Amino acid sequence: GVGFDYRLGMAIPDKWIKLLKHTPDEEWGMLDLVSTLCNRRYTERTVAYSESHDQALVGDQTIAFRLMGAEMYEGMSGLTEPSAVIERGRCLHMLIRMVTMGLGGEAYLTFMGNEFGH
After folding, report:
1. Whole-number average pLDDT of the chain
2. Which of 80, 86, 12, 9 is nearest to 41 (CA)?
3. How many CA atoms lie within 13 Å of 92's alpha carbon, on the beta-carbon side?
4. What is the rounded (10 degree) CA torsion for 97, 99, 100, 106?
5. What are the residue ranges of helices labelled H in 59-109?
6. Within 13 Å and on the Cβ side, how many CA atoms surround 105?
7. What is the pLDDT of residue 2?
8. What sign for the dihedral angle of Cα 40, 11, 104, 19?
9. In the 8-state DSSP scheme, what is residue 96?
């Protein structure tokens, strides 16, 4: 058609924030996660995204900051080896984006306003 033919998968970033806030990553339920990522009408094309500008505007933390915290300020130098917190945070951040991109819809929206990830 003429215009915007995609729907935003707005439940996806909310799911990631809920998981990061309330559930250790070792206890994430894959069935629950996949159900949220794939929950859309068959014929509707969806834009998936793992975090949004709205979350940062209302004072919430971005995914990168939630995963790595204040360690980001000191532990991401190219002159030293990254700490375990930074390595874990980077890996989980990449996994979150990869799973969202793969299962979340027919397009992927990148949030450019975070400290680290894109």
Report:
1. 85
2. 9
3. 19
4. 120
5. 63-68, 71-75, 84-103
6. 24
7. 63
8. negative
9. H
- In sequence order, the 6+-apart residues with CB closer than 8 A to the CB of 90 are 68, 82, 116
The Cα 71–Cα 57 span in angstroms is: 22
Burial label, 47 (beta-carbon count in 10 A; 0-12, 13-18, 19+): middle
In the sheet that 6-8 helps form, which strands lie side by side, from edge to edge?
6-8, 45-48, 107-108
47-105 tens-digit pLDDT: 999 987 777 677 778 888 889 988 888 888 788 888 899 999 999 999 999 999 999 98
Instruction: Count Cα neighbours of 2 within 13 Å in the Cβ-side half-sphere.
Output: 0
Q: How far is CA 70 from CA 31, 55, 85, 108, in A?
A: 32, 19, 10, 28
How many residues are given for the chain? 118
SS3 labels along 43-61: CCEEEECCCCHHHHHCCCC
User: Could you tell me the pTM of the whole model?
Assistant: 0.84
Between CA 102 and CA 105 the distance in angstroms is 7
Q: How far is CA 23 from the centre of its chain?
A: 15
